Amino acid sequence: MPDLNLLITLDVLLAEGSVARAARRLRLSPSAMSRALARLREATGDPLLVRAGRALVPTPRALELRERVGGLVQEAVAILRPADALDLSRLVRTFTLRTSEGFVENVGPELIARIGAEAPGVRLRFLTKSDRESVPLRDGSVDLETGVVGQAMGPEIRTLVLFQDSFVGVVRPGHPLTEGEVTPARYAAGRHILVSRRGLEEGPVDAALEPLGLRREIATMAGGFSAALALARRSDLIATVPERHTGCLRAGLHSFPLPVAVPSVRLSLLWHPRLDADPAHRWLRALVRDACNAWR
Fold first, then answer.
1. What domain count does the chain have?
2. What is d(CA 86, CA 121) in angstroms, rounded to the nearest whole number?
3. Burial of 100 (0-12, 13-18, 19+ CB in 10 A)
4. Which of 1, 72, 168, 175 is spaced 20 to 30 Å from 150 by Cα?
């Protein structure tokens, strides 16, 4: 494998046209520089610098290489130094966010407003999250993701908890559960919508009712919270959804605390570690976190 350090040596030799001056510039001894020139001649199959009187002059091959080598070295130096400070006013980039249901409706407007004020050249593309697989983060088709961390998530994925969310019951205005105390028995006696992307027939609510000897009737199943709330809005069915996550979606509906203890969920921000140090990505992560804090 070629020694890429020789590119720097070649760049300096061609710029200086002198082994002695190139040695001083690279803080090498003249003999070490002469050995480097010999290696360059062997690698390129060309003498590169030949003596003309007391001076060295470049060969046609050296003249051909001079511009290319200089550009390569400058690019390598730029790659290996810390990134320049992020200029948000000049940043032009599209970020893809794969979000769980309700995030766009609740956090999206605040997030877009903040981005517009700080970096008008940045656009967001929202994708619906249909599973918990981390493949889109790994292959780079998604920059950021929100959701509950599960076993399907790759172990290398970075996470940041955004907020904790508790479940509430939701019914249409005028539903019997809008009046009086909602006891476990009254809640279980109604007809329910079960939200499950994986087609499960029971959930945490059923596990909480079981020790009380109660079982609810699942009238229908939905793949997401918005579908469940749409059904509850126009029927006597009861939807059970995360409170904060569905704030906008529940407008005009009656919400009530669950009469049984159901574990809360933690919504997290997820990204691939290759984007950890990217200044624009760090800025966006902080913006999402701040927008979620403002929503509380």
1. 3
2. 13
3. buried
4. 168
Same domain, 107 and 74: no
**Alpha carbons 154 and 131: distance in angstroms, whole number:** 13
Domain stops at, among 79, 107, 142: 79
Are 217 and 201 spatial neighbours (Cβ–Cβ below 8 Å)? no
Q: Determine the Cα–Cα distance for residues 135 and 173; give it in Å rounded to an integer.
A: 42
Report DSSP letters for the chain, one per residue.
---THHHHHHHHHHHH--HHHHHHHTT--HHHHHHHHHHHHHHHTS--EEEETTEEEE-HHHHHHHHHHHHHHHHHHHHTSPPPPP-GGG--EEEEEEE-TTHHHHHHHHHHHHHHHH-TTEEEEEEE------HHHHHTS-SEEEE---TTS-TT-EEEEEEEE-EEEEE-TT-GGGSS---HHHHHHSEEEEE-TT--S--HHHHHHGGGT---EEEEEESSHHHHHHHHHTSS-EEEEETGGGTTTTTTSEEEE-SS----EEEEEEE-GGGTT-HHHHHHHHHHHHHHHHH-
Answer positive or negative: Cα dihedral of 143, 149, 155, 159.
Answer: positive
Residues 134 and 179 occupy one common structural domain? no
* Type of residue numbered 120: P
How far is residue 177's CA from residue 44's CA, in Å, rounded to a whole number?
85
Q: Report the predicted TM-score, pTM, of the whole model to 2 decimal places.
A: 0.67
Per-residue pLDDT tens digits for 226-281 = 999 999 999 999 999 999 888 888 999 999 999 999 999 898 999 998 888 889 99
| Residue whose structure tokens are 């599209």 | 94
CATH number of the domain residue 152 falls in: 3.40.190.10
Give the span between the Cα atoms of 25 and 15, in whole angstroms: 11
